[in-house]
Amino acid sequence: MKIKDFFLFLFLGLFFLVLQSTWLSGELIHPYRLDFLFVLIIFLGSLNRLVLGLIVSVLLGMMVDLLSWGVLGLAVILYPLIFWIFSFIHSRTNIESLVFPGIAVLVFQLLYGLVVFFLLSFFKGLEFPQHQSLLIFEQAIITALLSVPVLYFLKAFLRKKPSLI
Questions:
Q1: Which of 36, 52, 72, 112 is a plausible cystine mate for 16, CB 3.0–4.6 Å?
Q2: Percent of the chain beyond pLDDT 90?
Q3: Across the chain, what does the average pLDDT equal?
Q4: Which domains are assigned to the chain?
């Protein structure tokens, strides 16, 4: 693992976290919160660098949990798990399209949202209103649609040859 790659991806994760917590969390797009950290985690999974991706996803999950809840929670577990699953799938396929990671962002965003709300309703006794699942689905679709250009720029920035088909 190269140290400069570690700090580059950690900086990108912090940048995305600040961006989605400030400019992209306003009343204009409320209650939808674009989750660009998912895009970065999926991008790391496409690089086939297991140790780097696991360390960065654990640290980003820790930051999300600490900034959201003040204690460690689900993101520190689910972010590395999502990275590992996508890395496992990507390493066994030969799909170089940007649509494949975009679909992965959609699927993992849906699973993440549903798991978090299920566990919160089960362990904390919070109600899980029916319209909340629609909001999770809409947030996942918006994040997945915006993930394709973000993935393209990440690949172009890191000198990877991006492919749209």
A1: 36
A2: 36
A3: 83
A4: 3-157 (1.10.1760)
